Amino acid sequence: MPYQPGEIRPNNFTFEQVSVGQTFELVHTVTLADVKAFAILTGDYNPVHVDADFAKRTMFGKQVVHGMLTASFISTMIGMLIPGPGALWTSQTIEFLSPTFIGDVITIVAKVKAKTNATRMLSLEMNIYNQNKTKLIKGDSTVRMLEIADEKKKEPLAMNEFGKLTEPKVILITGGSRGIGAATATLLASKGHAVVVTYVKADDEAHALVKRITEIDGRIIAVKGDIAREADVAKLFKTAEDKFGLVQAVVHCAAPNPIPQPFDSLDWQTFQKHVDTQIQGAFHCAKHALPKMTASGSGAFVFLSSIFADGVPPSQQTVYVTVKAGLAAMARSLAVEYGPKGIRVNVVSPGMTQTEMISNIPDKVKMLAKMNTPLRRLADADDIAATIDFLLSPAARHITGENIRVCGGIVM
After folding, report:
1. From 7, 17, 214, 308, which residue has the greatest number of CB atoms within 10 Å?
2. Structural domain of residue 53, as residue ranges?
3. Pairwise CA distance, residues 397 & 29, whole Å
4. Distance (Å, rounded) from C-alpha 33 to C-alpha 38?
5. Over residues 295-310, mean pLDDT
6. pLDDT in tens, 79-91
């Protein structure tokens, strides 16, 4: 509907809501007071505009409204209606076709001609008509829609008196029955989050973890299933949502033990097992989580990689290093694609960590790693869990696409 300037209700479009072909109208009756105010503002006292006696002796026979006064309502259109508050006017072409006179009722019509997502730019066709449908002005506007921070969407930093988050999340942890996954589940549950852990074979460990966390009034369930299988992941997410609600964060820890193996004795079946669990597992979890995260405008992922994925790799660990590097690359790609949708994706890369996963490594090698580490100790699972907790917290709300090494400084 057309609006009079005094009654304009500003539009508050998001860039995504604007579509090519949309049109808007603004109506204004030009008065003598408008002409006088424009002359005072600009210093343009051309008598054809402000002197009635002079104007009568011209070909028009009456006062002509400043052309730029008529055109100035293009600014009203851009700043209030399309795209509205927060718009930045970047260029304008104007062609004056017919004069405007005092008392004319002008209608400013804007039509969206083009939209460029990458730069948030709109191209608008502008036409101004009088009450007789005579076109007075035509032109093209280029406008950028600025991104305006929404304070309501900021994650709160506040903690309650017990040190738990005021807005707990539902967090899925793959491979969460033992090691780093179990430590992460324990820490997050202690802070009030609802935790869903997955496991394949470790029934006893999973049940023990659930018992420990439940005893401290934590919220947790353990779901058996292979994340390499899409059907298992679908069941996993349904179970999580039925129990706690929408999954708001995913921590991907699941990985087969990295048993050292010379490349000449390595078969593709072994390689495939790691790819299926880590890369395909991450893929399935992202596929199921991202649509609802996108709809809600927020979400977070943390993938567990390794310092060896981008440093000097250990000997006979081709499978482990290759897959961890791929996982980190996937995280960066998702961070770029889904960052504009409010979703963060980060990587935690531990160094040698005291878990069952390094049980096959000789004590001599562990001791050497410890002595070469500036902090002179190996990490334990709680060190990694604390970093994951940070990346999922509101304190990390401006961190995405990062790879945080938790290795005591052995890689700098």
Report:
1. 308
2. 5-145
3. 49
4. 9
5. 92
6. 989 988 888 999 9
Per the structure, the count of domains in the chain is: 2
Written as one string, the DSSP assignment of 301-335 is: EEEE--GGGSSPPPTT-HHHHHHHHHHHHHHHHHH
As a whole number of angstroms, the distance between CA 5 and CA 25 comes to 11
The token pair that represents 159 in the structure block: 């903690």
Whole-model pTM: value is 0.64
Q: 380 has which bridge partners?
A: 354
Residue located via tokens 């790609």 = 333
**Cα–chain-centroid distance for residue 305?**
22
State the DSSP H helix or E strand holding residue 268, giving kind and residue range, or none if neither: helix 268-274
Burial of 264 (0-12, 13-18, 19+ CB in 10 A): exposed
Picking from 409, 404, 401, the residue whose alpha carbon sits closest to that of residue 390 is: 404
- The predicted-structure confidence for 88-141, as pLDDT tens digits, reads as follows 999 999 999 999 999 999 999 999 999 998 788 999 999 999 999 999 999 999
**Amino acid identity, residue 311?**
G
Residue 158 has pLDDT above 50, yes or no: no
The CA distance from 266 to 388, in Å, is: 33
Classified as helix, coil or strand, 364 is helix
The residues annotated as belonging to the active site are: 320
Using CA atoms, how far residue 200 sits from 176, 197, 232, 250, in Å, is 10, 10, 11, 17
**Residue 299: beta bridge partners?**
343
Chosen domain end from 110, 145, 180 = 145
Tokens standing for 202?
């470790």
CA dist 84 and 76 (Å) reads 9
Q: Are residues 19 and 44 in the same domain?
A: yes
As a whole number of Å, the CA-based R_g of the chain is 32
Alpha carbon 65 to its chain's center? 48
Q: Is the backbone peptide bond immediately before 313 cis, with ω within 30 degrees of 0?
A: no
CATH number for the domain harbouring residue 247: 3.40.50.720
C-alpha span between 350 and 348 (Å, rounded): 6
